[in-house]
Every structure is written in C-alpha cells, then in structure tokens.
Write a structure and sequence with these properties.
It is a single chain. This protein is α+β, with helices and mostly antiparallel strands. The chain folds into two domains: 130 residues, Nuclear Transport Factor 2, Chain: A; 164 residues, Protein of unknown function DUF192 (Jelly Rolls), CATH 2.60.120. The protein is 22% helix and 33% strand. The chain contains six helices and 16 strands. The longest helix has 19 residues. The chain is elongated, with a radius of gyration of 22 Å. The termini are far apart.
C-alpha cells in the first residue's frame, strides 16, 4: 500500500472511531479549513471545516441520544487498493451498503469525504481484521475508568476493573452492541446527581447475559438480578438506588456476591483512596429527565408496568 493510501486508511479508521465513540474532536483537528463532504442521499454539499464540524457533532449527538449503532468494515478497491470504509449493519434505500470514500492530495492529506453506494466499487476486505464496531476496547475509550471492590459477607475482597457511567443520557448505551466482556469487567451506572431513586434496567441491545447489582447510598447491595436475558425489553427494577453495577452474567453466582455485601469504588483521581458514596441531593430537573426517560421507554414498547 502506498503512503497516500495508508494515510487515507488512517483517516477512515479515525472516522469510524468517531462514530463508535460519538466524539469527532480528533477528526476535526486534522481536516483542512476548506474540507468538503458530500452524501449521495443529501442534497446540500458541505464546503468548510466549520460546517462539517457543525454537521458531524449534531449527527453523532443524535445517534447517541437515539441509541443508533453503526458497524464498519475496512475494505479496498480491487482495482487499485484504495481504502474504503463500508457501513455493514444498514443499507441504503436502494438496498446497497453505503461506503465512505476519501479524496486526498498526492501526499495523502485529506481534502474531502464522500458517502456513496458500494455498488460503484468492486471491493474486498482490507485484511482479516477488517471489522470495526463497538467492542470492549472502544467501550473503555468512551467512559472514565475506575476499580470496583466487593466486600463480601464472608470477609472476602473481590476486585473488578470497571467503568463509571454518568447519569441520564450518558448512561444510555451501557454494554449495548458489545459482543463480549472479560469476567473481571463491569459497568457502574451512577445516579449520584439524582439521589436514591427508583431504577429500571433493560437489555434491548445487550448481546450478552448480565448480572445487575443494585446499591444504596450506604454502599450496601439491596438487590441482585442474575443472568438478565440478552436483547430483552423487560425492565428489572429496584427502589432507593444510588448505583447499579452491571457484570458479566454468572459473576454474582461464581463469586457468591449477596444482598447485604458492601461496594467500594476507586477512581484514578482519588489517589488510591476508596470512595464512599456521598449523600445525594435530588434535583427537580433530574427527576423531570428521569420521568421523560420512562415515557420514552413506553413509546418504544418497553414493559414499564412496574416503573
């Protein structure tokens, strides 16, 4: 592959990462002021970096809020090896896959990006590892890392590597679309800005079985739901919750984690001190947001009878 095509491939992989993480800040930094973007299915062309920044930021935010996931494959044109980025989990109105194509100068500096139909390009996979999608590793780049420790009823310490998820829309994706996670990994849904509250968890886009651990403001486990089914619309509910911890299915059984056990969180910024959940002040705007989320679930067909 030429140096020009290598740089184009790097740009397309960065574009894919921007879609997967819903953050295009790094991508925006490397495009020129006169950057152009065209889509076969959109009438207006974009002819500046500023306009593309506005477009892509709004699009990614909309995708995040709507929980729309994109998966890619890194391909190449059979005729000359030019790199192409194909969207694999959706098709165009004509029934084809869509593909991103880069135009660059002789040294590989990107000038414009086009989204068009894959029918115009005879393609083959770039290599054996050409699939680009939301995975455990991209998940780590989306959220803040910390460590999780369970202090059990029989005086054991069980440590996990975990990710803290912010409340509200920041926590909406969770483990959605991820095919697998390590046994030592979990996710924490933090409701600290809302206060002890009623919570309903669901797994409509979660592809693996998970355990849900509900924790109160005193760091005590108040409910455990083991082996929640993948791709399920049923809500798993609990009252007076400060945190919800999502583990790989079977972990609570394997490690004999029980109601009444204590939970500790340790963040990188805490200088190795374990954090005790503080008392939470309820904000009217957060309660309003939570109620709106429940209404949105009803509109989407989720079972909210007990919420």
């Amino acid at each position: 592959m030429t140096d020009k095509y290598s740089r184009e491939e790097g740009f397309l992989r960065l574009l894919a990462k921007s879609y997967l993480t819903h953050n295009a800040d790094t991508l925006i930094k490397i495009i020129p002021d006169d950057f152009g973007y065209d889509s076969m299915w959109v009438f207006d062309s974009i002819k500046s970096k500023a306009r593309y920044k506005e477009y892509i930021t709004g699009k990614l935010e909309s995708m995040k809020n709507g929980m729309y996931n994109v998966e890619f494959a890194m391909m190449k044109d059979k005729r000359d090896g030019k790199p192409l980025l194909m969207i694999t989990n959706s098709k165009t109105p004509e029934g084809d896959h869509a593909v991103f194509v880069v135009t660059s100068d002789d040294t590989g500096n990107v000038q414009r990006l086009d989204l068009t139909s894959a029918r115009f390009y005879p393609m083959e996979p770039m290599n054996e590892n050409n699939v680009i999608k939301r995975t455990f590793h991209t998940l780590l780049s989306e959220y803040d890392e910390c460590k999780l420790r369970f202090l059990t009823h029989d005086n054991r310490e069980i440590d996990y590597k975990t990710v803290i998820i912010g409340h509200g829309i920041e926590s909406a994706w969770g483990l959605a679309f991820v095919d697998d996670i390590p046994d030592t990994f979990g996710m924490v849904y933090d409701y600290s800005s809302i206060g002890p509250t009623n919570v309903g968890m669901f797994t409509p886009d979660t592809r693996i079985s998970v355990d849900f651990v509900f924790v109160d403001q005193n760091s005590k486990i108040i409910k455990i739901h083991k082996n929640a089914k993948p791709l399920s619309r049923d809500l798993i509910e609990c009252q007076n919750v400060a945190f919800v911890i999502e583990l790989k299915g079977g972990q609570c059984e394997t490690n004999n984690i029980q109601v009444g056990d204590t939970v500790q969180l340790k963040s990188k910024s805490a200088k190795n001190k374990f954090l005790v959940p503080r008392m939470y002040a309820s904000k009217p705007e957060d309660k309003k947001h939570q109620n709106q989320q429940i209404e949105n679930k009803k509109d989407m067909g989720y079972n909210t009878e007990n919420e």
